[in-house]
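QA checklist item 7 of 12: single-chain prediction sanity check.
[x] sequence parsed
[x] length recorded as 205
[x] structure emitted
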Amino acid sequence: MLEYMRLGGSIMWVIAALSVIALAVSIERLIFFKKASADAEALEESFGNAVAKKDIEEARRIVTSSKSSLHRLFFVAFAHWGIGRDEMKLLVEQQVRREIFRWEKHIYILEIIGKTAPLLGLLGTVLGMVEMFQSLHLGGQISAAAVTGGIWKALFTTVAGLVVAIPTVFVHGLLMSAIDSEEETLNRGADYLIREHFASHGGVK
């Protein structure tokens, strides 16, 4: 591996660094997504029952039982349950935006790496080809073995760039799909809270 890195030149080390960053961001986001997810139906059912019974303590226990984005949304709504319907609508919409911002954090890094890695690989290959032809020109002797050997070495960076970019783009797509799904879940949760708040006429205070 170190021999391939040496043959690929300094750009190979840049691509390797980008691969480490992409891996770290992917793992961090996957862990966050798992912690920030929740069973929407179960939460709505348990919270709705508590509100219907005007059981303040039970409702508080439910919304604070997890740090998921949906629980955070329900907690904010519960903490301001006595406000008007329009104010509640604005409040939950703002909280949804805050939660989506948390989900999208660092995602742009994967997009940048996915687009940059292949370009860096191509740059490394071009620089390698330039160096090869320059050395052949100065050496005065050109052979098929020298040309193919130089091209073979120069292509290392292109391969490395694609190896980093392909899984990065794939993971980025999966994470963006998860964000879209969570946004829909939060919006449905917000609609549920507004309906529940309106039905209870300010219920829990």
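[x] summary fact logged: Residues 19 and 68 are 29 Å apart (CA to CA).
[ ] second reviewer sign-off
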